[in-house]
Write a structure and sequence with these properties.
Pfam families: AKAP28. The protein has 132 residues and is of the alpha+beta class. It contains 2 helices and 4 strands; from the N terminus they run αββββα. Strands 1-2-3-4 form a 4-stranded antiparallel sheet.
């Protein structure tokens, strides 16, 4: 069976606020297939002024606490950018992309299926480094 990539209806440039961006990132995350034991929190990092657009940077930090280890030894971060064009009409939807911690690959929510394995790999790699 063919997998359908779940995306959300992103806000327009004119309706965008920093808080609305954070809410929409949470809305997107709610469509991802991750086990309920994963916990996350998100934060706004900074606003970046470019020639043709404005970018808003966010971080979502993931961990998997357990009863035995309620404070996780490592976390995995996903960095989101919401971009508002200064060229396109203000009624156009914002552009959204994200990168995984320790990766340069840019993902677009409407073009990729999020993999829980990505979070596991980041944390496993950190734990291996700590043990060395």
């Amino acid at each position: 069976t063919k997998y359908v990539i779940k995306d959300i209806q992103w806000t327009t440039g004119e309706d965008f606020t920093v808080e609305r961006g954070k809410e929409q990132i949470e809305e997107l995350i709610s469509t991802w297939e991750v086990h309920e034991s994963w916990l996350h929190w998100s934060e706004f990092l900074q606003e970046e002024e470019l020639k043709d657009s404005k970018r808003y940077h966010y971080r979502v930090c993931w961990s998997m606490p357990t009863r035995r280890k309620p404070i996780p030894r490592a976390t995995a971060s996903i960095y989101f950018v919401i971009e508002i064009s200064k060229i396109k009409p203000a009624t156009s939807p914002v552009e959204v992309f994200f990168t995984l911690e320790s990766s340069r690959l840019i993902h677009r929510p409407e073009q990729c299926r999020f993999r829980e394995k990505w979070l596991k790999d980041i944390i496993e790699n950190k734990l291996i480094l700590m043990e060395r």
